[in-house]
Amino acid sequence: MAFRRRNKSYAFFSQEFLIQNHADIVFSLVIFILIGLMFEATAKTAIVFIQPQYNISTLSSEGEVTLYHYGWKDWATILFYLFITIILHAVVQEYVLDKVNRRLHLSKSKNTKFNESGQLCVFYLVSSIWSLYVVCTEGYLLHPSSLWENYPHLHLRFQVKFFYLTQLAYWLHAIPELYFQKVRKEEIPRQLQYIALYLLHIMAAYLLNLTRVGLVLLFLQYVSELGFHISRLFYFTDENHHKMFDLWAVGFVCTRMVTLTLMFLAVGFGLSRAEDQNLDWEAGNFNTVFIRMTVLFLVCFTQSWLLWKFIRFQLRRWREFRLEQAARKRAAAKQNPSRSLKRDSVGHHENGLVKAENGTSPRLKKIKST
């Protein structure tokens, strides 16, 4: 199964060979792991990569329920779904984005940004729908107090744990994709910034057992980012669609306000009222004053940084708009120059008389009427 058109063959394991065939190589690794399920000797090892581990069965009002907690074996599962994400990334790039790029004839810089927004649009759309489904089915939407009540939320349902594992897999896969996609050096620091921020926040929510509030915050963030990248895709197809950025700007500011409000409500107010506020590694209780303040500082700092970047982005857009308007006015002025009054070759008319230009002759000659 080939994901890339090969116009030229390269030496095995050379840099260009790995870049051009990385999806095929990863696909082979996935098949190798799946084949391990077919044999009894390797099935137990292969299942660690495919299925989330650390499950326990408990009795509840719904009957017997299987819950999960985290452990070091989760890294094997994350690695497997990182491979899956690389394959899906190549499929979207080859069969969707490349075909659109050939029709749009974008420049190299716009082509890179178009591919980035296209990939992120697919991810944000799927993750937004998925997270909304989990939030609704888990009852967080109808009972907001469940975001902090009964903390620590050590045991997770399958859909919650699997969601977090796939999120970590996606953002970890974005790091080698910088190499596979040949991202320009000046673009790498910007992309590494938001990759690191996503990994930091998702891992903090997962390891500190703040998965409920983290799930809601991820939904809000993904919806906001989805609006931005959809606006950018429409802008690349037609630059007259810049008004969609105004709609995204309103949603962005609202998302920041809701995020800060929810964090102060859940962590600053809800967890501070809990009875047990002692650090307990075995029970998964991290509800201490220091950890709460650290989490709040991290979220507030990130939201402030995002707002600062947003303000700079809006100011740059405003300056570009003003310069564009000024350029249009100058172009219109050149096309329609102001016409000066017609002057006679000898002088100019004044009250029906021809007056000399140089003022040497004081006599005024009456214009003959025809």
Automatic annotation (TrEMBL):
GO cellular component, one term: membrane
Domain TLC: 112-321
Subcellular location: Membrane
Pfam families: TRAM_LAG1_CLN8 (PF03798)
Entry's transmembrane regions: 21-39, 78-97, 118-142, 162-180, 192-209, 215-235, 247-269, 289-308
GO BP: protein transport
Keywords: Membrane, Protein transport, Translocation, Transmembrane, Transmembrane helix, Transport
Region spans: Disordered: 330-370
PROSITE patterns per UniProt: TLC
Record's keyword annotation contains Membrane: yes
Biased composition range(s): Basic and acidic residues: 341-352
Domain of life, per lineage: Eukaryota
Main location: membrane
Membrane-topology annotation of the record: Multi-pass membrane protein
UniProt similarity note: Belongs to the TRAM family.
Protein name: Translocating chain-associated membrane protein
